[in-house]
Every structure is written in structure tokens, then in C-alpha cells.
Amino acid sequence: MSRRRCSRCARPPSHCLCALVPRLSSRTRVLILQHPAEASHALNTARLAALALENGELRVGESFPELAAQPAHGIYRSCLLFPGAEAVPLAELAQDGRPLQLIVPDGTWRKARRILHLNPPLAALPRVVLPEGLQSRYRLRKAPMAGALSTLEAIVCALNILEGAGRFDAMLQPFEALIEGQIAAMGEAVYRRNHGGDQPG
To answer: Residue 8 and residue 22: Cα distance in Å, rounded?
Structure first.
């Protein structure tokens, strides 16, 4: 028998994060494409990001044929938040007058690349990247490379670049609570042993 979960944030009722999730408007449309393997993960930051954004949407799957028919919902210019040889710094688009649809693959690098492979129109979109030197607050996972962020952190950083520094920082509050809850559940000693925590959680 499966555990009860909140229908909104998908957390157990005793650890529901809904009260901490803001509801923010944005000029930028954020479309998160989540690999199915991530949907049931305990640390599902993409779901938190979608809940926090009035102009955000989360779709789960590997293939998204509808993107070829309506890649930008008319008024938006679509771009893919994903590294690549032709990727440009997101800050370069912040001065453009046309609103953006920021498409964000959610999954491990391998799963995200599979989503791009299965969706050629998506892979063909202009790519943008965040600034170098960013550091994740995601203390429960080792970053696969320097500057790697969780999906929620990447979205917050991107929106702050596009629409004003600090405007979307409130989205990090449930993220921090989620991490603290996971650390508390495993115990400080186990956290330090497995994740090398040198500072209090």
C-alpha cells in the first residue's frame, strides 16, 4: 500500500511544502520537460518550480510531438536552457523586447540528452546557458560538473537574470526546507558521513 501524498506538492502530508511555495508571475514562460524517471523522485525540484510560477508548466515524458506544432505559443520566442557548442549566455537575451519561452529539460544529463534526441524540433532550438561559477545549494547530490544546479535553482537563476535580480528567490524557500527535511530524516551524522557536510545542516 502506497503512502499518502499531498496532491499538489506530492510530499507526505507531514512534510507538505505547499505553505512555503510562492505563486509568482513572470513575463517569461517556463516549460519544464521532465523525464518520467524523475517524476517520483523524493527531491523533485521541477515540480516545486512549476507550482511556484503562474506562467510555468511541467510536462512529463520522453517524446513531446506537440512542441513541433506549437513550439512557442505564438507570442514567445523559444530557447532551450541546455549547454551546447552554439549556446549563448542567457544575459544576452535579457535586453531583447520579445518575451521568451524558456524550455528546461529535467533529468540526469543522460536522460536530458535522450529527451533532446527524441525531439528534433527541441534539439534545434537556440540554446542558452547560465553564467559560469555558480554553486548549487543541493547538498544531497554531488554535482556532476562545476556549476551544475538543480532544475529549480537553474530556473530561479535564469528568471532573475531575465526579469530582475532577487525577484524569484522566494522559490528557493521550499527547496531549502526539502533539503533540511531530508537531512533531518537521515540524521546529521549519516549526512556528514555520506555527503561530507562540513557545516551544520
So the answer is: 13
Count of beta carbons in the 10 Å neighbourhood of residue 13: 9
Fold for 23-131+144-195, please state it.
Alpha/beta knot (3.40.1280)
- One DSSP character per residue, 118-183 reads H-HHHHTS-EEEPPTT-----TTS--SSTT---HHHHHHHHHHHHH-TTTTGGGHHHHHHHHHHHH
Cα–Cα dist 79/81, whole Å: 7
- Global pTM reads 0.85
pLDDT of residue 136: 83
Q: Per-residue pLDDT for 199 more than 50?
A: no
Contact 38, 46 (CB under 8 A): yes
Q: Provide the residue ranges of all domains of the chain, joining segments of one domain with +.
A: 23-131+144-195
Q: What mean pLDDT is predicted for residues 62-85?
A: 81
Q: Let me know: does 49 contact 121? Beta carbons within 8 Å.
A: no
